[in-house]
């Protein structure tokens, strides 16, 4: 298990807490955007000749920034409590964190509910001239039925759910992070498959269906799961991407909900993209250099085996939400299962999200994981219920974790700016 959902929240907030975000990028009331123009006192005179037909539609407004969804209500309460305790600087940092663009997570809703919820977000983002990031997390058997278990019960249910997402997006902009762990953690990886590999085959069919349903939408980009660079080698994840339909998707993503550095993520993405190009040209992924190969040798291999023209190569996005301090190194020999992915101590927010990375293949740095929300009950091989590294019982997956939220804002690298 590596990834935790942050479901879309539409909960009412106390007025005092809601007011805390009024200065945020999505605070303008919808009514202010949709008020009708005043009626004309007299009709315009009829034109004597029709205007010439346009030869092409007017271009849509350029979306150069990412969308900020409504904050977790518990985050606003946390900021308010810090202010009441005489810690306004920490409270301001919490507010600054939740005002930063991050993904909206969907999972476990009915098809009708997810259609409505997605439509609400993509419309709000369109009004803000921003691109929403939608993390879809409803694959059957997700997370090997562990901390973030759940999802659709059958392939048919999943397809109906994806159809609802597609109807909700329609022709509006959306960047889709499709099913964290779906390819990096197959049913076959966690002992949940049968001898014939039925569930793993169904997993690939489900991911392919999502790609073929969502990617053809007018302004939707779909990215597939690779785990992170400390997990699968390039040569092992590339065949999974190919089977998952990456050829028909915009590309892939890495480090969702994890802590690997920006440098490691960008390098991993470059190698995967190169290896996918090699495989598409008939090459064997086993020949591709891994993320652990010496970089000069890997770059030489790319120069010899991949066209210099990158226009046909797959793009990628990365998660920088909690990687400001890089991954946690557990104390040697202390735990039988250190769970280094699970609420590790001493981590900080990473680089702010952006659609401009300076790399033509690296489409965006995102905050896929909602920082401040728990990864679950971390026992690290002990009987629990306390997390032995923290001495407290961690909140359930997706719940606001005050201790970790404070660590993230206090140890952010680069530091988080407050207004």
Helix count, DSSP H or I runs of 4 or more residues? 11
Q: Strand-and-helix sequence, N→C? A: HHHHEHEHEHEHEHHEEH
What's the total number of strands? 7
- How much helix is in the residues? 25-40%
Largest sheet: 7 strands, parallel
Look at the structure and give the mean pLDDT.
Answer: 88
Secondary structure category: alpha/beta
Strand content: 5-15%
Distance between the termini: 36 Å
Gyration radius, rounded: 23 Å
Give me the side-by-side strand order of the main sheet.
1-2-3-4-5-6-7
Give start-end ranges of low-pLDDT stretches. Answer: 3-59
Shape: globular
Question: Can you give me a brief rundown of this structure?
Answer:
This protein has 419 residues and is of the alpha/beta class. The chain contains eleven helices and seven strands. A seven-stranded parallel beta sheet has the order 1-2-3-4-5-6-7, with helices on one face.
Please name the defining characteristics of this protein.
single chain; 419 residues; alpha/beta; 7-stranded parallel sheet; 7 strands; 31% helix; globular; disordered N terminus
Structure description:
It is a single chain. With about 425 residues, the protein is an alpha/beta fold. It contains eleven helices and seven strands. It has helices at about 15-20, 30-35, 75-85, 90-100, 110-125, 155-170, 200-215, 235-245, 260-280, 295-305, 400-410, and strands at about 105, 135, 175-180, 220-225, 250-255, 315-320, 360-365. It has a seven-stranded parallel sheet with strand order 1-2-3-4-5-6-7, covered by helices on one side. Helix 3 (about 75-85) packs antiparallel against helix 4 (about 90-100) and helix 5 (about 110-125) runs parallel beside helix 6 (about 155-170). The longest helix has 19 residues, at about 260-280. The protein starts with 14 loop residues before the first helix and ends in a 9-residue tail after the last helix. The relative contact order is 0.13. The model is unreliable at about 5-60 (pLDDT under 50).
């Amino acid at each position: 298990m590596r990834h935790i959902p942050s479901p879309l929240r539409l909960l009412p907030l106390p007025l005092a807490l809601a007011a805390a975000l009024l200065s945020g990028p999505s605070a303008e009331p919808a009514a202010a955007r949709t008020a009708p123009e005043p009626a004309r006192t007299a009709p315009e005179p009829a034109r004597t000749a029709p205007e010439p037909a346009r030869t092409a539609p007017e271009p849509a407004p350029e979306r150069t920034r990412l969308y900020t969804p409504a904050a977790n209500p518990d985050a606003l309460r946390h900021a308010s409590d810090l202010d009441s305790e005489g810690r306004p600087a920490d409270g301001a940092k919490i507010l600054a964190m939740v005002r930063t663009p991050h993904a909206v997570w969907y999972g476990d809703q009915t098809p009708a509910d997810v259609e409505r919820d997605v439509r609400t977000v993509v419309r709000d983002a369109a009004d803000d001239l921003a691109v929403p990031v939608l993390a879809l997390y409803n694959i059957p058997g997700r997370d090997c039925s562990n901390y973030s278990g759940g999802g659709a019960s059958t392939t048919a249910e999943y397809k109906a759910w994806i159809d609802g997402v597609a109807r909700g997006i329609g022709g509006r902009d959306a960047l889709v992070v499709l099913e964290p762990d779906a390819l990096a953690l197959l049913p076959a990886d966690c002992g949940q498959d049968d001898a014939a590999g039925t569930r793993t085959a169904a997993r690939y069919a489900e991911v392919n269906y999502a790609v073929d349903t969502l990617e053809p939408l007018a302004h939707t980009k779909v990215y597939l799961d690779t785990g992170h660079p400390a997990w699968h080698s390039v040569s092992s994840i590339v065949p999974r991407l190919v089977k998952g339909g990456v050829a028909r998707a915009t590309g892939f993503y890495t480090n969702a909900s994890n802590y690997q550095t920006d440098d490691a993520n960008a390098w991993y993405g470059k190698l995967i993209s190169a290896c996918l190009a090699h495989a598409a040209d008939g090459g064997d992924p086993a020949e591709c250099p891994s993320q652990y190969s010496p970089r000069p040798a890997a770059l030489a291999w790319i120069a010899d085996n991949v066209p210099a023209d990158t226009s046909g190569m797959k793009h990628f996005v990365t998660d920088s939400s909690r990687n400001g301090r890089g991954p946690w190194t557990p104390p040697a020999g202390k735990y039988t299962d250190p769970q280094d992915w699970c609420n590790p101590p001493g981590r900080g927010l990473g680089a702010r999200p952006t659609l401009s990375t300076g790399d033509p293949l690296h489409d965006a740095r995102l905050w896929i994981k909602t920082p401040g929300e728990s990864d679950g009950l971390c026992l690290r091989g002990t009987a629990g219920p306390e997390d032995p590294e923290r001495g407290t019982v961690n909140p359930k997956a997706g719940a606001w974790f005050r201790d970790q939220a404070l660590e993230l804002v206090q140890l952010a690298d680069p530091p988080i700016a407050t207004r």
